[in-house]
Amino acid sequence: MISEKNSLSASSAPYRSGVVTILGAPNVGKSTLLNQLLQQKIAIVTPKAQTTRNRIMGIVTGPDFQILLLDTPGLHAAKEEINRRMVKIALASLADADAVLFLVDCSVWNHDKRISKAEEYAGYLKKITKPVVLALNKQDLIPQQQLLPIMDWCRTLHPFASVVPVSALSGQGVDVLLAELVTLLPEGPQYYPEDLPTDATERFIAAEIIREKIFLLIRKEVPYSTAVVIDSFEEGDPAVIRATIMVERDSQKGILVGQKGKMLATIRQSAAADIAQVLDRRVRLHLWIKVSKDWTENTAILRDLGLV
């Protein structure tokens, strides 16, 4: 599960370390950017909004710095209890931050879209008291002559420490972004070993990968009503993992099982392959489905899932 890390050239500068919280609306590429900075997959990624539910920490270590990156749920106008808690988790991460990376998708920003988003972004940004770097994601999807006007407009929203165009998917501009973030960190020690990419447990990563496959393979709203609980995780080769997928309705259980159990088998096979790649050993994955009526509004269950 270890891979090469991003690094800046060594220098005589003092060692810097600290926490950077990644904030942004749903589906702007926060998890993709985290994975790109780590140069390996830690956070799950799907085309659906609000995939990330919990705060996930990625660790980027260079010769004279260590950044603890907090990937957070997307900021949005939440109605359901689970969504309100997701937004609360994102905003609570600001308390730990030395700096903030605010990510937006600039590929959808025509003039009218920018104006409509101005008040929303201003509302989020006014809650931030730490230095903020604005990253304009998906800059490779717009004509370059449109980029400078967008950057100029963004600077009217907030006194950003810097505005950096990037492509989280291809990695374009990510080295520049990393360098800007390092300059905002205080002098400090190396908190984690240089070969550790995350503080997340293998159990957590396994549960997230299973949930990712549900998002990718199941249509409509069913994935938003699912949660994954790891019942047991036996170390070894193969690792034996038993997990329960929780849903709210019997009808949702039927969709996940599929005709003659084919959908559940597909989820299991796809998830097991990815988990094995992350763990770097064979995996035997066993899945069950449990109906827990209206669990997304149940405070006790949400607390058990870490959505506090």
TrEMBL record:
<keyword id="KW-1003">Cell membrane</keyword>
<dbReference type="InterPro" id="IPR030388">
    <property type="entry name" value="G_ERA_dom"/>
</dbReference>
<dbReference type="InterPro" id="IPR006073">
    <property type="entry name" value="GTP-bd"/>
</dbReference>
<comment type="similarity">
    <text>Belongs to the TRAFAC class TrmE-Era-EngA-EngB-Septin-like GTPase superfamily. Era GTPase family.</text>
</comment>
<dbReference type="InterPro" id="IPR005225">
    <property type="entry name" value="Small_GTP-bd"/>
</dbReference>
<dbReference type="Pfam" id="PF01926">
    <property type="entry name" value="MMR_HSR1"/>
</dbReference>
<dbReference type="GO" id="GO:0005829">
    <property type="term" value="C:cytosol"/>
</dbReference>
<dbReference type="InterPro" id="IPR004044">
    <property type="entry name" value="KH_dom_type_2"/>
</dbReference>
<keyword id="KW-0472">Membrane</keyword>
<feature type="region of interest" description="G3">
    <location>
        <begin position="71"/>
        <end position="74"/>
    </location>
</feature>
<dbReference type="GO" id="GO:0005525">
    <property type="term" value="F:GTP binding"/>
</dbReference>
<dbReference type="InterPro" id="IPR009019">
    <property type="entry name" value="KH_sf_prok-type"/>
</dbReference>
<feature type="region of interest" description="G1">
    <location>
        <begin position="24"/>
        <end position="31"/>
    </location>
</feature>
<protein>
    <recommendedName>
        <fullName>GTPase Era</fullName>
    </recommendedName>
</protein>
<dbReference type="GO" id="GO:0070181">
    <property type="term" value="F:small ribosomal subunit rRNA binding"/>
</dbReference>
<dbReference type="InterPro" id="IPR027417">
    <property type="entry name" value="P-loop_NTPase"/>
</dbReference>
<dbReference type="InterPro" id="IPR015946">
    <property type="entry name" value="KH_dom-like_a/b"/>
</dbReference>
<keyword id="KW-0694">RNA-binding</keyword>
<feature type="binding site">
    <location>
        <begin position="71"/>
        <end position="75"/>
    </location>
    <ligand>
        <name>GTP</name>
    </ligand>
</feature>
<keyword id="KW-0342">GTP-binding</keyword>
<dbReference type="Pfam" id="PF07650">
    <property type="entry name" value="KH_2"/>
</dbReference>
<feature type="binding site">
    <location>
        <begin position="24"/>
        <end position="31"/>
    </location>
    <ligand>
        <name>GTP</name>
    </ligand>
</feature>
<dbReference type="GO" id="GO:0043024">
    <property type="term" value="F:ribosomal small subunit binding"/>
</dbReference>
<dbReference type="GO" id="GO:0003924">
    <property type="term" value="F:GTPase activity"/>
</dbReference>
<feature type="region of interest" description="G2">
    <location>
        <begin position="50"/>
        <end position="54"/>
    </location>
</feature>
<keyword id="KW-0547">Nucleotide-binding</keyword>
<feature type="binding site">
    <location>
        <begin position="137"/>
        <end position="140"/>
    </location>
    <ligand>
        <name>GTP</name>
    </ligand>
</feature>
<feature type="region of interest" description="G4">
    <location>
        <begin position="137"/>
        <end position="140"/>
    </location>
</feature>
<feature type="region of interest" description="G5">
    <location>
        <begin position="166"/>
        <end position="168"/>
    </location>
</feature>
<keyword id="KW-0699">rRNA-binding</keyword>
<feature type="domain" description="KH type-2">
    <location>
        <begin position="218"/>
        <end position="293"/>
    </location>
</feature>
<dbReference type="InterPro" id="IPR005662">
    <property type="entry name" value="GTPase_Era-like"/>
</dbReference>
<dbReference type="GO" id="GO:0000028">
    <property type="term" value="P:ribosomal small subunit assembly"/>
</dbReference>
<keyword id="KW-0963">Cytoplasm</keyword>
<comment type="subunit">
    <text>Monomer.</text>
</comment>
<keyword id="KW-0690">Ribosome biogenesis</keyword>
<dbReference type="GO" id="GO:0005886">
    <property type="term" value="C:plasma membrane"/>
</dbReference>
<feature type="domain" description="Era-type G">
    <location>
        <begin position="16"/>
        <end position="187"/>
    </location>
</feature>
<comment type="function">
    <text>An essential GTPase that binds both GDP and GTP, with rapid nucleotide exchange. Plays a role in 16S rRNA processing and 30S ribosomal subunit biogenesis and possibly also in cell cycle regulation and energy metabolism.</text>
</comment>
